[in-house]
Design goal:
Layout (H helix, E strand, L loop, with lengths): L8 H19 L2 E2 H8 L3 H13 L3 E6 L6 E6 L5 E7 L3 E8 L4 E8 L6 H19 L6 E8 L24 H9 L3 E5 H12 L8 E6 L3 E7 L2 E2 L31 H4 L1 H12 L5 H9 L3 H25 L3 E5 L7 H14 L7 E4 L6 H11 L2 H4 L1
Parallel strand pairs: 4-7, 7-8, 9-12, 12-13
Antiparallel strand pairs: 1-3, 2-3, 4-5, 5-6, 9-10, 10-11
Bound molecules: zinc ion (ZN).
The site of zinc ion has 6 residues, from loops.
Length: 385
Amino acid sequence: MKRTTPGSQASLRESNGRRVLEALRLFGSLTQAEIARRTGLSPATVSNIVGQLREAGTVEVSPTSAGGRRAVSVAISQRAGLVLGLDFGHSHLRVALGDLSHQVIAEDKINIDVDHRAEEGMVAAARLVDGVLARAGVDRAEVIGVGMGLPGPIDATSGAVGSSAILPGWVGVPAAAAMAERLGLPVRVDNDANLGALAELTWGAGRGVSDLAYIKAATGIGGALVIDGRLHQGRSGTAGEIGHTTLDETGPVCRCGNRGCLETFVGAPVLLRLLRASYGPELTVPEMLASAARGDIGCQRVIADAGRAIGVAVANLCNLLNPGRVVVGGELAAAGDVLLDPLREVVGRFAIPAAVPEIVGGILGERAEVLGALALVLRETDAVL
Ligand SMILES: [Zn+2]
């Protein structure tokens, strides 16, 4: 980009253009009136900037009928670049290709062994990426960045995977650098709960909320905090680890080394263990959820008790941070109100009345993390501008 004198007309134009692109990067497609509202620029200035960006091929406009009125919607052009999202789960691997207008162009998924090693996982991911790019007819050079999610704590400075009982084959691996080398593309990495939060914030149940707590209720209980529209990472990347809230200091030993953490009472494997004596040793999480949905009292009871336990931790979180909305995602969230109603009841009882937030289920299901990996890159200013 050309150097411009600060305060000059050209530098003002440049910074206004940057504000318009930043709004489009965060919100996907917007009408010119919405851009003016989001950026605080006048409608005439927005119209001018959009005209220039359109001429340069950076944005595209298309007719829309928002609210019955005819308008044009503006989005960053596909020619401006594409982004990739990778989600490494403990039993699956997902890839998504998206553009800067927030459209998902192609996706793919494979099942992968629970205890896969980092090397194996990255080879499989690279193969999946090649397949998705080929099917979408996209050249690798068009991809400006890759977001990657792992179900473990990520060291914010080194980008390495910290200690984790979920993905032991990845501990100590500098995940972002290793994947970047394999793909020949810049890679950013974050943990699965943070990505779930970003996805719900961008596309799902958290849209329009600037202070949000996200709970991922699955094998483990993860959490993420969005404060003032931004993910709050904390000093070493562990902010939001609600699963390790102490419920019983003489309780079972947790994978983190402490006793009686929330996760040791409500993680999916714990719920299955409670049910297997009566429901058979082969019971799976999808079967437990299906039985609960059909009205099975035992399965409903176990899930409701989990909701109550999570509610105690969420009530404490609400008293401390006062989020406007709590979004519950992860595999167990598919239980819907069987999980959420008891959770709401307990938050209603233990949180300060003024701190009781709206509590809703996530709407992106098992795609939340891979979409969050896309959002991670979309929100990264430098990669796009
Ligand atoms: Zn713990």
